[in-house]
Amino acid sequence: MDRSALVKFFGFPATLVHGDPLVLDRWFWLKARLPKTKNGERLLDVGCGTGAFSIGAALRGYRALGLSWDKRNQLVARERAAYSKTLSTEFEVLDIRELDRRVDLVDFDVVICLETIEHVMEDLKLMRAIARCLKPGGRLLLTTPYLLYRAISPGDMGPFSTVEDGWHVRRGYSRVMLEELCEHSGLKVERISYCSGYLSQKVAAVMRRLSATNAMLAWALILPLRVLPPLLDPIITGLLGWPHYSICLEAYKPREFSERSN
Questions:
Q1: Helices (H) and strands (E) in the chain — how many of each?
Q2: How confident is the model at residue 262 (pLDDT cuts 50, 70, 90)?
Q3: Which of 106, 115, 138, 223 counts the most CB atoms within 10 A of its CB?
Q4: How many CB atoms lie within 10 A of CB 43?
Q5: Domain with 129 in it: what CATH number?
Q6: pLDDT one-digit tens code per residue, 45-91
Q7: Number of domains within the chain
Q8: Is residue 227 part of a domain?
Q9: Is the pLDDT of residue 1 over 60?
Q10: Is it the case that residue 244 has pLDDT exceeding 80?
Q11: Which residues, at least 6 apart from 119, have a Cβ–Cβ distance to it below 8 Å?
């Protein structure tokens, strides 16, 4: 099936149900932290994949630039942006491990980096590069697997890659680990939260098992179940004390004040 067929007919919402069920959770988390705007704030999506979050941000009024090393994904992202009628979205092929070399990517109001940093060996280098891309007063919105998640499928238990081959190079992050990265990157932690609870994880587990037999059938069978996590997950996850799959960071780049302001 055409990777953008659903987007062609249903627009942006289809980008959120095209694959991994956990994508929708990340969008709800992100959307709550991206207020609609008419000021055209600049947003950088580091590790944008096929562009769902870049497109979603553009629909909320941001001028979004998505970065990914994968040329095929970027072609799909541009196609989906066109179907979603987001004229303020651009995509560029760039290995984000080399983000620090792009001195022109500066003064962004917001940087988003969702489920990406766990793929990069030199995570501090990436975090410092992200901080440089932000203007003073800018914000970073980041999600990554939570160190204490319960494995959705056997691969989540490792072994994790010792080279950057596209898979996770570490299990995940704790609150202290994210605070540590921010401290050494000149960023201040505003808030740490979590997303993708018990129901989302169980739906994802079923989809992964079924996909081993037939990916299209798995998608079709799981589709009706996708409505349940947004409605019930906060209650059920809390009652069970179940760890979320992702830990979520909101961080701030301090503004610069001159001596005259004192």
A1: 9, 7
A2: low
A3: 138
A4: 28
A5: 3.40.50.150
A6: 999 999 999 999 999 999 999 999 999 999 999 999 999 999 889 99
A7: 1
A8: no
A9: no
A10: yes
A11: 47, 164, 166, 167, 168, 169
Domain carrying residue 143: 5-197+243-255
Rounded distance between C-alpha atoms, residue 128 and residue 130, angstroms: 5
Q: What angle do CA 192, 156, 159 make, to 5 degrees?
A: 115
Overall pTM > 0.90: yes
**167 belongs to a structural domain:** yes
Q: State whether residue 185 is helix, strand or coil.
A: coil
Nearest partner of 58 among 30, 87, 35, judged by Cα: 87
Residue 226 placed within a domain: no
Asked whether the predicted pLDDT for residue 125 surpasses 60, the reply is: yes
Extract the tokens encoding 180.
Answer: 């540590």
Q: Residue 12 has which token pair?
A: 């942006």
Distance CA 234, CA 228 (A): 11
Q: Is residue 220 part of a domain?
A: no
Measured CA to CA, the distance from residue 8 to residue 79 in angstroms comes to 9
With tokens 């999600």, the residue in question is 143
